[in-house]
Write a structure and sequence with these properties.
alpha/beta; elongated; Rossmann fold; 20 strands; about 40% helix; about 450 residues
Length: about 450
């Protein structure tokens, strides 16, 4: 199976069956994305009515393509897909992504079964049908009709929803979130989440897998692959269809079986999978995991220049299972060097509103050096005596020195937005409110606890 997925993510040649000459058409946008994202392999547009598209020689059918085809992207009417699969089998193609809709998601199961039957006979693995494509940033492969300039990163995103997946691709660009891969799985008629987990588990470019899921095809196999994967890298799942009506909607959307929500929750926990409550939380956690700093325990130090946000973070930590512990006396003495007499070294560490970047630097460095501290949450409120950009530079500096996880929250105006953008650019997990910073840290702790079971 992994050989076929190597052809998906690391192809030496890609054919776009249904490439279009007209901007706005799916076959045109996929070809343009593939070309302009920087893919270096051979590109073979296939269109019976065109000789060139975007300056690339076009072929009238698959069998006219002179070389081998590692990966085929198929965007033609559903009824014409099965015969094309037979042609690809003649070419020795190992994998195909079927963009086309009109299969089991609209009740046309016979056509989908015929598609898979022909693919298996020809030794071809199918992603889809009913998908928007695949992206793998290390090989500059953007074979989707989603956004073009996706930022390279360490998060693999698997989505069963096409429109949602495309929207989130664009959102990650705006939020400066890097992705190693995006896979739209649609109906999951052949390749499913379990197959992809097996591949991403071995992928050195992927550090965390995030899945938007409406249902699974083979629950036992998914859990087997999930258990193996969570021993080496985290899996975050956003499972839709919690309610009875939600389950019915998920089933009608992609033709998958949603199943009882309580069973999913119990199974995820058993397999070490982290279940997120919403999209924001799922990506917050993934950002923290992609920083690749993991806690040895749940003892957290909160360092802040605002007493109020420190209290809010403490409440969130207690609810999330993080221990806001009383620091040992030697560490308290270190903290007191970086605050006025009316500051607090008891945790949360309140440097007070007089703190500048120098005080943050000293307190954070003291925390990362001390063996009693497992993780650090840095909270900054904009004041007249401090420069948000310098605060951000200090957080990055300490983050780069540390093998302990750090999450941060910065609250303020336009300068704070600039400072947060700087941290995001440099891979530091930063969030606009305390609860999200705490939630991300708690996810790191939970995964470390579960993988040790």
């Amino acid at each position: 199976m992994n050989d076929a997925l190597n052809s998906v993510f690391r192809p030496k040649s890609v054919a776009i069956v249904g490439a279009s000459r007209f901007p706005g058409k799916i076959g045109y946008e996929i070809l343009r994305n593939l070309k302009e994202y920087g893919y270096k392999g051979k590109i073979y547009p296939v269109n019976p009515a065109a000789d060139k598209i975007l300056g690339i020689k076009c072929y009238h059918n698959v069998l006219e393509v002179p070389g081998s085809i590692d990966l085929a992207i198929i965007s033609i009417p559903a009824k014409f897909v099965p015969p094309v699969i037979d042609q690809l089998a003649e070419k020795g193609t190992k994998a195909a992504v079927v963009i086309s809709s009109g299969f089991s998601e609209v009740g046309n199961r016979e056509l989908e079964e015929d598609l898979i039957r022909r693919a298996r006979r020809g030794g071809i693995r199918i992603i889809g049908p009913n998908v928007f494509g695949v992206l793998y940033s290390p090989t500059r492969l953007n074979a989707t009709f989603g956004p073009r300039d996706v930022r390279p990163g360490k998060i693999a995103f698997i989505t069963q929803s096409g429109a949602l997946g495309i929207a989130l691709m664009g959102w990650t660009v705006t939020e400066k979130i890097g992705l190693s891969a995006v896979v739209s799985v649609g109906n999951k008629a052949d390749v499913d989440d379990a197959d992809l987990l097996s591949w991403f588990r071995e992928d050195e470019n992927t550090k965390v897998v995030l899945i938007y899921m409406e249902g699974v095809v083979d629950g036992r196999r998914f859990l087997k692959e999930a258990r193996l994967t969570t021993k080496v890298k985290p899996i975050i799942v956003l499972k839709a269809g919690r309610s009875k009506k939600g389950m019915a909607a998920a089933s009608s959307h992609t033709g998958s079986m949603a199943g009882a929500d309580v069973v999913y929750s119990a199974s995820f926990k058993q397999a070490g999978v982290l279940r997120a409550e919403n999209l924001e939380q799922a990506f917050d956690w993934a950002i923290a995991f992609s920083a690749e700093r993991f806690p040895k325990g749940n003892k957290v130090v909160i360092i802040t220049n605002g007493g109020g946000v420190g209290v809010m973070a403490t409440d969130s930590c207690e609810a999330a299972g993080l221990e806001v512990f009383d620091p040992p006396e030697d560490l308290k003495r270190e903290f007191k060097k970086y605050m006025p007499e009316f500051g607090s070294a008891k945790n949360p560490i309140d440097l007070t509103g007089m703190a500048t970047h120098e005080e943050f630097r000293g307190a954070m460095r003291s925390a990362i050096k001390h063996k009693a501290v497992d993780c650090i949450i840095a909270l900054y409120c904009e004041t007249a005596v401090s420069d948000p950009i310098k605060i951000a530079e200090v957080i990055k500096e300490v983050f780069d020195l540390s093998n302990k996880p750090i999450t941060a929250t910065m609250i303020g105006g336009e300068r704070v937005n600039e400072a947060m953008a700087f941290l995001k650019e440099n891979g530091v997990p930063v969030y606009p409110d305390t609860e999200r910073a705490v939630s991300a840290m708690a996810a790191l702790v939970r995964w470390m606890e579960r993988r040790s079971l």
